[in-house]
Amino acid sequence: MIVRKEAWLILATSLLIPASLQANPAPETDALYQQHCASCHGTDRLGGMGPALLPDNLSRLKKPQAEDAIREGRPATQMPAFADILDSESITALAEYIYRPPANTPTWGKAEILDSHLLPHLQGSLPDEPVYEADMMNLFLVVEIGDHHVTLLDGDRMEPIHRFPSRYALHGGPKYSPDGRYVYFGSRDGWITKYDLYNLEVTAEVRAGINMRNIAVSADGKYVMAANYLPHTLVLFDADNLELMDIIPVENDAGDSSRVSAVYAAPPRDSFIAALKDIPEAWEITVEEGKPIVRRMQTDTWLDDFFFDPGYDHLIGAARDGKHGLVINLDTGKTVADLPLPGMPHLGSGITWEYQGKRVMATPHFRTGAVSIIDMDNWEVIKTLETEGPGFFMRSHENSRYAWVDVFFGPNKDKVHVIDKQTLEIVKTLQPAPGKVAAHVEFDRYGEKLLLSVWDNDGAVIVYDADTLEEEKRIQMNKPSGKYNVWNKINYEEGTSH
Ligand code: DHE
């Protein structure tokens, strides 16, 4: 029997896509969407004042939660409750509708990016003095994902200075300008927001893509690079006003395109480094006379998550199979070591420190309760530390003898381990809010105090003394996720994320 390729495709597709998603949406559901949702989320679901409502963007929201959001609204956002307007069948139909792949693949190119550009304050038009008093190098930003806000904290007094709304679902670390005055936020649905910490004002915004991974700011502060999942692009902006400079299609020589796993600035190299999710390549991008120049490195596998040594000579990547890591020399592009890292290491949150006269790096794992500690001279795993469950984030500070790692997944998600960086042992396990995830630590600029999130709508950041490990105070917050200290970030402090 000869089966034509198209027939196989139809069969394969019908096996993969649930029946509810295969049929075209009923016209009445489309009408409901256009009547009640389109004004905020866009007629084509690409987002507007509200987030994009496409399957790729919603991968982290379960359908029952989407129904709840439609029924009850979302607190502290513009999303109203529809329980009194729509019956439960309509709510279910709408929730199904937003998880359907769109009829036409959405485009987000030059015209859309230029159209999205907002410039409330031209670079240089606001005063150069802060409108409040604080050590501007010891500020923290706390991203509160519960109601999409950001809190600015004074890191000396550990008191909030200001709280402002953010774009929907910020993700990844915000990136500061080299002088620490401006910060750039990236949202999952593609918005980049530039914020002036002196004047407490958004100065520029632009939407780089429909589903964005993260952003990076060049070491000289001149450029911002966005890495997208959808479309398959890297997008370069001028950092002053977020003007579009170039769109780099992410494809190989054969014309296959790829999502970008992430992009980071590599300060000593004066470049950006990106890894691709669907093509086994890592890219180094330099900007010459305003134009991005791409150098491609073939890798042995697809890299989902990666990290660098302090000199940015090597990229340490997690292989797609989640079973090992590899080390790539960034000058030669060659793989120089294979790391036995089972359990899907989360290298994006790796940290390094000095241990017995040499530099080691440590990473938690998404799938196993372990922290791997690796000698960065010979790339050997010197210790696998057992934890009470898989972890997400690790943090320390050069001046602290401890490293902190959370247990983000599983029954012990409310626990946080404190590791002695010289004995490589867990010396304390904290459980600050039983039943609530405790995760993500950031130190102040001196490494003397630190903040830990109680990751809950009725949550808090907890201030600890970094030496005695005693709690000092709790500041109430709405699902605080990451926290970012200006000094640590602009100095690429060894214990913090870059
Ligand atoms: Fe993240 C950083 C990827 C899920 C909160 N996350 C990052 C970075 C990457 C990444 C590549 C580094 C970018 C940067 O800082 O420039 N995250 C991924 C995933 O692939 C994953 C597993 C699946 C996904 O949904 O994309 C994922 N991340 C999450 C979450 O579910 C978290 C816990 C909640 C959320 O807000 O989405 C989450 N990720 C974070 C945070 C950072 C981050 C808070 C910044 C950490 C830092 O200290 O810099």
From TrEMBL:
Signal sequence range: 1-23
Protein name: Cytochrome C oxidase Cbb3
SUPFAM superfamilies in the record: C-terminal (heme d1) domain of cytochrome cd1-nitrite reductase, Cytochrome c
InterPro entries named among the record's database cross-references: Cyt_c-like_dom, Cyt_c-like_dom_sf, Cyt_cd1_C_sf, Haem_d1_sf, Host-pathogen_enzymatic-act
Any GO molecular function: metal ion binding
Keyword Lyase: no
Top-level division of the source organism's lineage: Bacteria
UniProt keyword annotation of Signal present: yes
Keyword entries, A-Z: Heme, Iron, Metal-binding, Signal
PANTHER family in the cross-refs: DIHYDRO-HEME D1 DEHYDROGENASE, PROTEIN NIRF
Domain Cytochrome c: 24-102
Alphabetical list of Gene3D superfamilies matching this protein: C-terminal (heme d1) domain of cytochrome cd1-nitrite reductase (2.140.10.20), Cytochrome c-like domain (1.10.760.10)
